[in-house]
Amino acid sequence: MIDMLLDILSWGLLISGAFFCLTGGIGLIRFPEFFSRIHAASLTDTLGASLILMGLMFQAGISLTLAKLIMIMILSLIAGTTASHAMAKAALKSGMCPLDQAALSRRPEVKSYTDKT
Amino acid sequence: MRHALALSLLLSCFWLVNSGHYTPLILSFMVASVFFVVVLSHAMDVVDGEAQPLHITFRLPVYVIWLAKEVFLANIAVAACVWRGPGSISPRTIRVRASQNTDVGVVIYANSITLTPGTVSIDLEGKDIVVHALTEAAEADLLTGEMDRRVCRVEG
Question: I want to staple B138 with a disulfide (CB 3.0 to 4.6 A). Which of B76, B118, B123, B143 is the partner?
């Protein structure tokens, strides 16, 4: 009985994690320009990955595997953030500018960037 | 010394969790490798309060739980934007002032902003964080300054 409940909970978490990963992927294509797309990618990084890992934790039970999954989760959250920030900063420094008039006028040296796709 | 001990403890836990083999020979390898890494870190001059901010250890969990709730809510908001399409977003860039006193505090704040979907910190100029927000709601959430205050409390 308990096993079945844990299985149901675990599958619920796995499926909702998969949903958020899929949503992140769709957002990556649907959003108009680079900086908005980073937000969509962070869906996959945060809740998508975390929910899938939590679902796996319920499958693992109390064991070494659980501790390893927790470490993977901490690593993926910190590495995901750092990578997002590094990417956004690199884009800004190489002359890409967010679609925002106020920001454009504050940084006249940066040429404006518009993605036509 | 306190920081070196904390680092040794953390590395040993990390090693034990990853290993799964607890025979005397393997455990002596652990002691040797942890000692080597701590000595190396000491030589690199990174064993200090900045690399191991021990004073925040017990205040951090409360903040992490609050942050997890915020990240969850923000995820749902951004997912809704994705399904409604590009018309539902209004990207904007804003500047927020980080009121933390230490570098560790500012880094925690800027990383929390990035971790929350809908806001990404794209640059750090002194204590000003340049933030790209996806929607007006995400911007308003950030401008309430609650995250800033909570990070200040963590930092102590």
Answer: B118
Contact check, Cβ <8 Å, B122/A89: yes
If you search the block for the tokens 């619920």, which residue do you land on?
A12
Burial B102-127 (b: 16+ CB within 10 A, else e): eebbbbbbbbbbbbbbbbbbbbbeee
Q: Has the ipTM of the complex gone over 0.90?
A: no
3-state secondary structure B50-71: CCCCHHHCCCHHHHHHHHHHHH
Find all residues with CB under 8 Å of A91, minimum gap 6, and list them: A34, A35, B122
Question: Which structure tokens are listed for B136?
Answer: 């007006």
Distance of residue B17 Cα from the nearest chain A Cα, in angstroms: 6
Give residue limits of the domains in chain A. 2-106
Q: Domain boundaries in chain B?
A: 2-43, 62-155
pTM, to two decimals:
0.83
- Asked which of A98-112, B66-80, B106-120 is least confident by mean pLDDT, the reply is A98-112
Q: Express each pLDDT in A45-65 by its tens digit.
A: 889 999 999 999 999 888 889
Which residues of B fall within a CB distance of 8 Å from A100? 91-93
Which of A96-100, B13-17, B137-141 is predicted with the least confidence, judged by mean pLDDT? A96-100
Per-residue pLDDT tens over the stretch B89-117: 888 888 899 888 888 889 999 999 999 98
Spatial distance between the Cα atoms of B96 and A12, rounded to a whole number of angstroms: 38
Count of A-B CB contacts under 8 Å? 101
- Look-up of token digits 């800004």: A92
In angstroms, the separation between the Cα of residue A7 and the nearest Cα of chain B is 22
Residues in chain A closer than 8 A to B117 (CB atoms): 39, 42-43, 46-47
Q: Is A31 on the interface with B (CB under 8 A)?
A: yes
